[in-house]
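lol forgot to send this yesterday, sorry. struct tokens for the thing we talked abt
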């Protein structure tokens, strides 16, 4: 169902851009509203995937998500540009032309983006990954080819062009408008077999206008032979070898790669049960479910709060009872301790009084004996 809906969206987008986005100012019709709604739901699904992922760095590392962001930004930019007003009856010409270019680019990416949906196929999945990996090899080739092409294109321009010649675009003596495309396109198309033999004549008017000597023509032929030898025999074969190595590496891990790609696609679509434009049903149900879950959580929190308050009351009551019991026991202990201390003090006082009484008895006996002794002495 995802594939069918995506194909229908591409058909709708192509129809609207080709037939409805005209430069003449007009009111937005039903097809355009339907297209804008569908496109908005697709963007909403992508935003939902990024939010659900909870890890934007991991979400952004996926190459398809990067392609999606570029694709959506280009489409939005193109839609805005083609609707910038100019005068009362027409949209702005420069903005409209730029918008058509941007929309053509985004439409191309939309169709290429459809290849992701076939990664679940055991045959197409690894092949699509091979193409992605081969693009990395192709970037290396393009870098080397750009250096070689720029070198020989500049050599062609210096060898075949006379600065004083008149440009084919008019009477101006400035040949930059002709030379610059020649430097870029001349070696590029030579790689595909367009040798521009007529350009090597004595009086060319294509990329490098002007008369040139036989020596300069001969040297240009040598440059062309050397350039084609480097590009066709070396760089192209290096590219083929790099492609062959990539194909072998992917083919050896075909089963693992297929399963990992399938898992990645399933993880990306696990929160999108329905494709756009039906995804709004899932979106509404998701909001209702989340709202219901939030109410349940809030109700549960309230119940927990009441239960906690009840537990707190019980705990406070238990603590109060325990504290009162403890205080009673402490008072009893203190009272018992006080009575014990008082009894001990009374015993000590009793012992002290007895010792004093004994001392008094001894003193009294001593005084009595002294008195008796004194009386005895008087009698004698």
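and heres what i got for the seq, position by position
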């Amino acid at each position: 169902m995802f594939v069918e809906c995506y194909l229908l969206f591409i058909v709708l987008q192509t129809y609207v851009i080709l037939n409805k986005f005209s430069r003449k100012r007009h009111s937005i019709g039903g097809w355009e509203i339907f297209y804008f709604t569908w496109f908005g739901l697709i963007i909403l699904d992508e935003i939902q995937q990024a939010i659900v992922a909870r890890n934007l760095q991991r979400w952004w590392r996926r190459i398809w998500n990067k392609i999606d962001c570029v694709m959506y930004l280009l489409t939005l930019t193109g839609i805005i540009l083609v609707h910038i007003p100019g005068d009362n009856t027409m949209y702005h010409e420069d903005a409209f032309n730029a918008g058509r270019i941007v929309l053509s680019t985004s439409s191309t990416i939309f169709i290429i983006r459809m290849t992701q949906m076939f990664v679940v196929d055991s045959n197409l999945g690894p092949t699509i990954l091979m193409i992605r990996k081969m693009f990395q090899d192709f970037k290396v080739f393009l870098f080397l080819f750009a250096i070689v092409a720029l070198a020989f294109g500049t050599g062609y321009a210096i060898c075949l062009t006379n600065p004083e010649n008149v440009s084919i675009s008019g009477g101006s003596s400035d040949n930059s408008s002709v030379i610059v495309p020649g430097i870029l396109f001349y070696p590029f198309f030579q790689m595909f077999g367009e040798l521009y033999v007529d350009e090597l004549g004595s009086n060319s008017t294509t990329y490098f206008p002007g008369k040139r000597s036989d020596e300069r023509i001969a040297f240009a032929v040598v440059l062309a032979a050397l350039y084609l030898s480097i590009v066709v025999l070396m760089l192209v074969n290096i590219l083929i070898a790099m492609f062959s190595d990539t194909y072998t590496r992917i083919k050896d891990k075909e089963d693992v790669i297929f399963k990992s790609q399938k898992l990645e696609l399933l993880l990306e679509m696990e929160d999108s049960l329905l494709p756009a434009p039906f995804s709004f049903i899932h979106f509404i149900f998701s909001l209702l479910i989340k709202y219901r879950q939030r109410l349940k959580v809030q109700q549960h929190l309230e119940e927990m709060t009441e239960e906690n308050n009840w537990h707190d009351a019980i705990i406070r009551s238990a603590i109060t009872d325990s504290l009162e019991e403890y205080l009673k026991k402490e008072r009893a202990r203190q009272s018992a301790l006080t009575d014990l201390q008082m009894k001990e003090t009374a015993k000590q006082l009793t012992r002290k009084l007895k010792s004093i009484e004994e001392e008094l008895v001894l003193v009294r006996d001593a005084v009595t004996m002294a008195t008796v002794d004194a009386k005895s002495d008087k009698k004698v």
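Confidence is low (pLDDT under 50) at residues 166-177. anyway ping me if u want another try
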